[in-house]
Write a structure and sequence with these properties.
114 residues; alpha/beta; Rossmann fold; five-stranded parallel β-sheet; 5 strands; 44% helix; globular
Length: 114
């Protein structure tokens, strides 16, 4: 495995982070990190502190990711998919593949779409 860490924001079904953990992926949910109700920027800070890519359905995260790069601030990447576009199982499968093929360094300051 390449070794991504994946932080699922509060709008992501917790079963996704649980399923990723079962596949050996280092995954965290906003729920388990006590981040429910946090601002989007606070989620970015949490993910940054974890050195984790953010997995989200929230369009605002794409805007924040771009703004951070323009401000010369780093983030560990964003992986985005529209809500309800993919099943929980398909999200787990695709995110596990990202973990297999991408490194933390390759995802740094990047936006990817499932």
């Amino acid at each position: 495995m390449a070794g991504l860490k994946i932080y699922a924001d509060e709008n992501v079904d917790v079963r996704i982070s649980e399923g990723l953990k079962k596949r050996g992926v280092k995954a965290f949910s906003a729920v388990e990190k006590g981040m429910i109700g946090a601002t989007d920027r606070e989620h970015f800070k949490c993910a940054f502190d974890l050195q984790a890519v953010i997995f989200t359905h929230d369009h605002h995260f794409l805007e924040i990711a771009e703004a951070l790069v323009k401000e010369d601030k780093n983030h560990y990447g964003v992986i985005f998919v529209e809500m309800n576009k993919l099943s929980v199982g398909e999200c787990i499968k695709r995110l596990a593949l990202y973990d297999d093929i991408l490194s933390t360094e390759e995802m740094k300051n990047q936006i990817a779409f499932l």
